[in-house]
Amino acid sequence: xxxxxxxxxxxxxxxxxxxxxxxxxxxxxxxxxxxxxxxxxxxxxxxxxxxxxxxxxxxxxxxxxxxxxxxxxxxxxxxxxxxxxxxxxxxxxxxxxxxxxxxxxxxxxxxxxxxxxxxxxxxxxxxxxxxxxxxxxxxxxxxxxxxxxxxxxxxxxxxxxxxxxxxxxxxxxxxxxxxxxxxxxxxxxxxxxxxxxxxxxxxxxxxxxxxxxxxxxxxxxxxxxxxxxxxxxxxxxxxxxxxxxxxxxxxxxxxxxxxxxxxxxxxxxxxxxxxxxxxxxxxxxxxxxxxxxxxxx
Amino acid sequence: xxxxxxxxxxxxxxxxxxxxxxxxxxxxxxxxxxxxxxxxxxxxxxxxxxxxxxxxxxxxxxxxxxxxxxxxxxxxxxxxxxxxxxxxxxxxxxxxxxxxxxxxxxxxxxxxxxxxxxxxxxxxxxxxxxxxxxxxxxxxxxxxxxxxxxxxxxxxxxxxxxxxxxxxxxxxxxxxxxxxxxxxxxxxxxxxxxxxxxxxxxxxxxxxxxxxxxxxxxxxxxxxxxxxxxxxxxxxxxxxxxxxxxxxxxxxxxxxxxxxxxxxxxxxxxxxxxxxxxxxxxxxxxxxxxxxxxxxxxxxxxxxxxxxxxxxxxxxxxxxxxxxxxxxxxxxxxxxxxxxxxxxxxxxxxxxxxxxxxxxxxxxxxxxxxxxxxxxxxxxxxxxxxxxxxxxxxxxxxxxxxxxxxxxxxxxxxxxxxxxxxxxxxxxxxxxxxxxxxxxxxxxxxxxxxxxxxxxxxxxxxxxx
Amino acid sequence: xxxxxxxxxxxxxxxxxxxxxxxxxxxxxxxxxxxxxxxxxxxxxxxxxxxxxxxxxxxxxxxxxxxxxxxxxxxxxxxxxxxxxxxxxxxxxxxxxxxxxxxxxxxxxxxxxxxxxxxxxxxxxxxxxxxxxxxxxxxxxxxxxxxxxxxxxxxxxxxxxxxxxxxxxxxxxxxxxxxxxxxxxxxxxxxxxxxxxxxxxxxxxxxxxxxxxxxxxxxxxxxxxxxxxxxxxxxxxxxxxxxxxxxxxxxxxxxxxxxxxxxxxxxx
Lengths: 297, 465, 268
What we know:
The complex is a heterotrimer. Chain A is an all-alpha fold.
């Protein structure tokens, strides 16, 4: 048995080693650098004159209302976008899974948003959202509705961004759920049909619970990524109108790359990291996803 | 190294015409004004020798850096587009190899600080979008010593008098040295669709009030009267809005203090916002260059007020429905004030960590020399030289009336008040709140007074005033 | 009836997914004036000029090739490194396994801005700037968290009996892994493979900062069509449309295991 123990541990070690080496090598140095820098006033404008200012960056961050506005915008965006995307992703994955004609075609179409080069898609949306020349307002007028300012109006800007993000990332959730659905065993479904359950009952009482780990993972990853959304906001609104769509990541970018205050940007990044870690920990513990349920001996 | 091919110039401008092509091409080129004052097609390889003469008359040892190689980095820009086809000439003249790296502006502005901030020796020559940033961060080589080097530079041949005054004063940093060279010249210019003006019975506006009233008359149904940049960032409304502030007797930064809460500045931005709210298109708050230019070229907007460089596209019938009937005008002025349009010289500098500084300097002075400017201006590039602006090639490429209007605006511009803001080391922290404030006024979220006062407080805190 | 509504919903969603792409395709056949015309034109005289320009542009072929190498490399190495780690985390309890798993997740949490300059400096010193392998390494690193966690999720759903039986039969851990566990998890591997491939194909920021002239992937290259004060719509839309063809082809290849029917039921 001791031999087995040793062999088991060696196996675990070997299987984990490549991933560990890669991630440590790649992420440790940048993390340490950013962490240390966040306690300094490092600016690319005065590289030789960096001094440690300890918590000053963080204090300044917590006392500017720009930070709190950015935090609120980021949270609203993340929560709304991810919620919509998960609902759509799970729904359409299930519908597609139960469909039997043209499945390949549909699946390919659903993956398109993930397959298009993001910059082309984003600029296409910028064109479609254009209030005077874009096709969206053209349709609005055709339908007899008021043309909207979309990205330019305080009322519709965030919503428009969520729309674009949803278009782009729902396929991600859909794909994970499809994979999950394909690996579920058939028997529970067949048994339920034999018992006369309706589709809705099957969906809510069997599909969702069995798919739960995958939905949980999809939700987790999508949330982590949505929290950091940058490209679409930068191209479409630059954080505007005013600062109504300026998320934390954009805020950090402004200070880091535009103002070259890398120390301050580092502190914003660390705060974002802390928020993400805390929320992820809570989520994982509540859903018992941190450790596998059963394991081999 | 990948060769960067260049695709959007008409094919005539490739450097491998034979003598037979030369004869055929001359007549076509003559019609297009693309013959130099020597009557030769500017790019025909067969005439490289004649062109070489224009350079060899300089008292410079062009071949002193032969065999070296430099990296030129820039954004997608008319300067890069005009200089790139001429680079083989430079190679022949100097024996220096030039690798060109071109990126979109957003990409460039994000990537180059990372490279320079990490102390990379390349690029050797690069376009400088924020002089304040680059100079303060120590990313630029001082050029004065190179200007004084008789082996590398010939003052007489270069003819400094030919260069615009503002172009010469722009590069002078607050320590008296120059770390860049101006490479283009542009000024805030009005462009108005003459057909639409005639149909509405209005003339070309000359004051803020006229712009507002004409704009309102021109706005009808789906067509807007005036469109100007207002997106909520430092690159959108700040420049045109700055011109409004200047033309109302105000300034942005004075002696290191932000003055955007002065009555003149507030009034100017109030006008800017009102004009756009009442005469502007739906959603103008999100307008940047693309949107402004596109609306104008599609004739869904009657008047625009932006960089003179837009003339190139506006007059291109393949892209613009407004080609041929656009009137270019002077900057409008505030009530009882004189117009002071905003202006800009793009600049290029040498990386302080470059290992090929002499070669880089030769390249820069070659690019800005009289003969090169003659050729690049024939492609429509707005150079910094009077001789180039007055040449037939430039006038036909850029548009004669556009050139006259732009020149007038350039001459009325006040370089100093522009520099005080745009060359401030923390220009980003000034322009971004300013741009956001303009956006807030245009979308009606805040009054001009509130927006400007709050922005000024924020800016002064950031720049330590 | 049920089937009708299901189909209606599915096709509506397909239309939603496809429309922006349709618009992009539309634009690629238009002159720049038409592309921005009002009202937007659905019927117009199509031109092939944009496609011809793009196909003749060696640089665009370069972007395609670079993206292909990087995306393939990332998927391959990502799966090779990530799937074993996922298996172990799913099947074995050991001290620190929860923390280790969370640490892997946390590598995805840092906003890129904090990593740009340190990454650049690291790569500069190691001499792997502007190399394919350099970007592949970065992409694998960025995506390993999702590969590991997703595959772990798939493994947790697969009952252990078959593997236990194989151990009883005397197979080693490693043999059980690649003879039984891996084949059983093909739907998961396929889903994760597609996600990784697409992610790497479309990743912009690190490809920008860590690549340059030798390695210029398509997102970086296509951004070059976004010019100063104007967008080269013709070339942007034509290249983006053409680039879809290889992507969809590879996704199609990876998709086979996702088909319903390859469930565990068939292994009993």
